[in-house]
Amino acid sequence: MFLADVCVKRPVFATMLIMALVVVGWFSYDRLGLDLLPMIDRPTITISTKLAGASPEEMETQVTKPIEEVVNTISGLEELRFSTTEGNSWVTAVFALERDSDSAAQDVRDKISTILAKFPKDTDLPIVEKFDPDSAPILGIVVSARRDQREITEFVDKRIKQPLETINGVGSITFVGDRKREVQVILDPRKLAAYGLSIEQAQQALAKQNLEIPGGRVTFGDSEKVLRTMARIRTAEDFGGVIVATKNGAPIRIRDLGGVEDGTEEPRTISLVNGENAVSMLVRKQSGTNTVKVVDLLKERLAQIVRTLPPDYKLQTVRDQSRFIRRSFEEVQTHMILAALLVLFFIRNVRSAIIAAISIPTSIIATLSIMRALDFTLNKMIMLALSLSTGIVIDDALVV
After folding, report:
1. 276-306 residue pLDDT tens
2. I need a surface site. Which of 56, 156, 313, 363 has the fewest CB within 10 A?
């Protein structure tokens, strides 16, 4: 009541107070980001484990089940689900909202560390991550050309992907349909049997003779130099000269057991545009950054890159989350304005209509300054709340 009494007795002070809030809110509007949903820190933990070549049944019984059993004992667990494919295991643990995400993730790591020795040999260490709602791609980019898929991949990686990764707010860029270079050593089982060798021996020989390790330091008077053992194979043809074993004083090389091909990795994904080979890039933003702002920066940089591409390369965006966010925001904004105008029309009292017409935008604009101070974004939930608040203000005007 104190503030109401002061505003009634001092109308100039009340007017200047309201104008100050409106001015601050007006300038805060340009600094508010647009996003689809607010940041929600849901205590959800994912555990991903890989074992190359393992069947889904083996992954489920020897990897997924042990993880599920130990994670199930953690307090505050509400839901536990898993998915197993060839060579991959994913376990998702959903905790109660009262649990802190960091402490829940640490509890999961502690439990998994007790069963690492039970995993099959060559199993990668489980990766424990907190669920991030910002992990969904915000922009999809497709680059197509009438060229070899490997050539397109190398071109896109160096000329497009690397420049885009330097933009502020870009988290990661992943490929779909890419074909990276891979040197394939193809061994003949009959030749291996004839020489009395195994695939493991050939694999160990390649690993031991294709490496680069530190060699220590050498001091010359007042100077010191760092040495490295440069034993990495430079060309695909040189893999054929790797010695696997020695029989009767004669070396047995990789070329004696099979062949070497300078090819591409096994295709697991495909990307085509109108029948032409293409490489797709899925751009993910950094957690907490503004989606619309990051997409605008990406499009600005893409416009610069397009001007430097060869004539046969075509670049287009096929997935843009910012367009949906902008349309959703504009629709809610339009509905708020229409609702306010229609209600003001049906008040049928000029004085009450003028008061409501001033109080509604004043209240909303002043709220923007508080949103900016709390680092909120304009998203679907915020716009819904503002719509409800507008209705409350209009209802109060009608009641009065």
Report:
1. 788 899 998 887 677 888 888 899 999 999 8
2. 56
